[in-house]
Amino acid sequence: MIMRFFAIAAALLLCAPATAQEAIDQNTLAPSKDPTRTANGLAQTPPMGWNSWNKFNCKIDEKTVRAVADGMVSTGMKDAGYTYVVVDDCWHGQRDKDGFIGADPARFPSGMKALADYVHSRGLKFGIYSDAGRKTCGGRPGSQGHEYQDAITYARWGVDYLKYDWCNTGTRNAEEAYALIADALRATGRDVVLSICEWGNNRPWDWGKKIGNLWRTTGDITDKWVGKYNYSWGVMSIADMNEPLWPHAGPGHWNDPDMLEVGNGGLTDTEYRTHFSLWAMMAAPLIAGNDIAAMDDATRAILLNHDVIAIDQDRLGVQGRRVWKDGDREIWVKPLAGGARAVLLLNRGEAPATITTTWDQLGLPDRLGASVRDLWAHRDLGRKRGSAVATVAPHGVAMFRIQP
């Protein structure tokens, strides 16, 4: 009965003049408490796309977003599977007298619907950002107290993806806050991927599956190899925090170790290949965070590695994990549909290292013959039995698809 009322309320608001959020709140539209509820059936493979934050932070405008959308088409990223163009924080203007949000008129003079229409015209999907607090992390109006109004506004604009942050939330309960926005989105009748971005503080892997499609497992990523920097973490530190959560990921619900830094200049190309490979092994969302319109050939070659993307997008939907470690040398394995395995040989050290993986580590019979493909050399290595070996560069990886 509650869900039926949600749908009726949304329909009335879509068809009638706007009313204030306070009028909606009088009807006590609380999140569904049904423990059997599931999320929206979207994101059966990890979402792929682009987000404005890592490169542009708050310096974002409609001209930049349109250029990125054009670049995603012209570079082949769209054809490779990158679908969503997501505008992060600082797009917001003010709320009108009835409490409905609008875009910053100086940065987005054409409005968000026009921008969404442009992105859709390029064969892509449009994403947006908000926050469960009264203000966003960038100090713009958040969605607390306006959840249903904002969901209706996003539906009118044609939004396909919502990243929902956790700044300025005070004593809010995270699960209820995210369930509320999920119900609001569902009530509009529009399919919207929900990205839960509360940084892993409230163990979203325990409850996010029934609410959203992906959940951040750590604080923000930064364009460094390792370590903590205020509230941000280097690539390898984030990988280490995300890896143990592998049992919680699967089709429609993914651990999110944050957006990609590939191409932003803080790491070497070898380190960026490692970053991209680890994210693919962990079945992470592949959300590029660079300037797509101005990326160099090395960045393009990493982001458009179809062999590695196929590992991330494998329909079995299992997150890979570390199965062996000896000092700076590691082996990661990801089961794939059809009985194949993806294998990552990782060298964290400062000198080249030889790493051997055995079929036993992959859960395969030792005598089994299997074809091996090197995913960065784009080369088939023939059939092998029992093991595969590679000499791996410092901070680098070797990555194979092993097909019995």
Task: Briefly characterize the structure.
The protein has 404 residues and is an alpha/beta fold. 27% of the residues lie in helices and 24% in strands.
Structure description:
- With 404 residues, the protein is of the alpha/beta class.
- It has two domains: 2-33 and 43-312, Aldolase class I (TIM Barrel); 321-403, Sandwich (Immunoglobulin-like).
- The protein has helices spanning 2-15, 21-25, 53-56, 62-74, 77-80, 112-121, 147-157, 174-187, 235-242, 269-281, 297-303, 306-312; strands at residues 48-51, 84-86, 92-95, 101-103, 125-131, 161-165, 193-196, 214-216, 220-221, 228-229, 232-233, 254-256, 286-288, 321-326, 329-335, 341-347, 353-358, 369-374, 379-385, 387-392, 397-403.
- It has an eight-stranded parallel beta sheet with strand order 12-8-7-6-5-2-1-13. A six-stranded antiparallel beta sheet has the order 14-15-16-21-18-19, with helices on one face. A three-stranded mixed beta sheet has the order 9-11-10.
- The N and C termini lie far apart (52 Å).
- Mean pLDDT is 92; it is low at 1-36.
Poorly predicted runs of 5 or more residues: 1-36
CATH class of the largest domain, please? Alpha Beta
Gap between N and C termini: 52 Å
Q: Into which percent range does the helicity of residues fall?
A: 25-40%
Q: What is the CA-atom radius of gyration, in angstroms?
A: 22 Å
What is the 3D form? globular
Task: Give me the secondary-structure category.
Answer: alpha/beta
- Count of all domains: 2
